[in-house]
Amino acid sequence: MPTKLQKDIIILAIESSCDDTAAAVIKNGHILSNEVASQQIHELYGGVVPELASRAHQQNIVPVVSVALKNANIELNELSAIAFTKGPGLIGSLMVGSSFAKSLAQSLNIPLIGIHHMQAHILAHFIDEPNPNFPFLCLTVSGGHTQIAKMNGHFESEILGKTIDDAAGEAFDKAAKMLGLPYPGGPLVDKYAQLGNPDAFPFPQPQIPNLDYSFSGLKTSFLYFIQKQEKLNPNFIAENLNDLCASMQKTIIKHLLKKLVLASDQTGIKEIALAGGVSANSKLREMLVETGKIKNWNTYIPAFQYCTDNAAMIAMAANYKFILKDFEQLDTAPFARS
Fold first, then answer.
1. pTM above threshold 0.85
2. Omega into 187 within 30° of 0, i.e. cis?
3. Is the C-alpha dihedral spanning 205, 206, 207, 211 positive or negative?
């Protein structure tokens, strides 16, 4: 943090990796505003349409940034730097955010800071206290990623395990689609699961060695089970929706936590964090805390608003990068995959 003789560090952060246009302002490590504009049009197509997402970002980015600055009571000439999500994500969406950030940084003659989206999810743990102590393990779960990272420092990490095929978030969304639920389906699975019996339908646990994950086989098993039951009873899904959601959710979470427990046992680390969009799932949050009590962990879960895609996490990561003077050149290019 700057001393009284130093200039305040004030950063405008922009997040545009998928279908949410977000902007946040951070001052000396404290979030002043955190604004998000969601895109409803994708509900019509059952998933994010990249071209429509990038067009919506173009429409939303100026208003969202304006609101973020206004709510933070910050003027453009007070900014120390502009931060943006460099990747991974949808390339068209990323280009909208990066182009805007570059242009604004250049016009103000201030530094540009590129942020890795998944790294930002982990550093969201430093927005509010309590903060995890290094080293800590972070289970990062989203629609595109599932991994266990060992964090030795803010930007010093080691991936201990990751999905070899699909991500847990995708498994939730695909299961929802199989059940006829609208997009985004993951939160609806969570909602209906709260009313169901998680032991109603046992689904096979993925058998993957070491600390890696796999969800493609589970999705296939779920699909075949539903198809078989619907042949016997066309109303099977409607009559068993809550139990199906609860059973599928339990299987996914059990797989996630099994590998996290193994990682903790192997490393001896008991500082355990959860991050990413799927960390908003109520049952996953509950089961992490319960497992932590059994295993004598110190567990950390971000506030709900910092779990899904947001610019506050980009701002927090950028704050640490600014202190290190880790800046981007104006010719930096976004990347779709990590």
1. yes
2. no
3. negative
- The correct CATH number of 132-301 out of 3.40.50.300, 2.120.10.30, 3.80.10.10, 3.30.420.40 is 3.30.420.40
CATH of 10-122+308-323, one of 3.30.43.10, 1.20.1250.20, 3.30.420.40, 3.30.565.10: 3.30.420.40
Give per-residue pLDDT as tens, 189-220: 999 999 999 999 999 999 999 999 999 999 99
CA distance 227 to 156: 46
Where do the CATH 3.30.420.40 domains begin and end in the chain?
Answer: 10-122+308-323, 132-301
Q: What whole-number distance in Å separates Cα of residue 81 and Cα of residue 96? A: 18
Q: What is the distance between the alpha carbons of residues 290 and 316, in angstroms, rounded to a whole number?
A: 28
How far, CA to CA in Å, does 126 sit from each of 36, 85, 108, 316, 322?
A: 20, 18, 28, 7, 15
Model confidence pLDDT, tens digit, residues 228-282:
999 999 999 999 999 999 999 999 999 999 999 999 999 999 999 999 999 999 9
Residue indicated by tokens 């950063």? 11
